[in-house]
Amino acid sequence: MRRFNLAKIIDHTNIKAKATARDIKKTCQEAKRYKFRGVCVNPEWVKFVREELKGTGIKTVVLIDPPMGLSPHTKRVEVAKQAKKDGADEIDMVINVGRFLCGDDDYIVSEIKKVKEICGDKILKVILETCYLTDNQIVQACKLAKIAGADFVKTSTGFGTGGAKIGHIRLMHKTVGNELGIKASGGIRDAKTAIAMINAGATRIGASAGIKIVEGLKRINE
Length: 222
Known about the structure:
The protein is 46% helix and 17% strand. It is of the alpha/beta class. Helix 3 runs parallel beside helix 5 and helix 6 (135-148) packs across helix 7 (166-176). The protein is globular.
């Protein structure tokens, strides 16, 4: 059986609306203990997480505008700017799903480009919220993200009607190949599911169940 070091590709996630400083600190402590790749939080916690993870090499990841990307463009840009200023290493940005479904491709490309300009050499992941899209729309959204200069395409925020699906990961990988990373996120709660996502083409896993996933992998490898 192929062996995985899942911790190295997991963004340990806490984006709960009711998360307190104590909760976020606990998430960071777990990330340090298990050596996860990153900690993903809402914008208000970026500076806090950056300080908690200082010197560890673990990335500070920020989620912007879940689940439909409906905030005004100017607000999304300002949130991205502030997140970078606060120390975010990576930005996970939701596309404006409504605009995309209307066929406003130029708007989608323009907005992604603008946020990527803010990111500079930092990683930008574009969240498609695949639960709302058809297969053809997923392909098109991936193409737009690629045109706009995104570094990753990502399935979900975890706030939509569904999370990552194997078929969608395969479709995304077929579309972007190895030119963009692929982050599977939403509903990934065990090692078997995480491994299946990787085998389908995912290069990053976003999960609040990071510990359960890693501990489950230990049992599989025994």
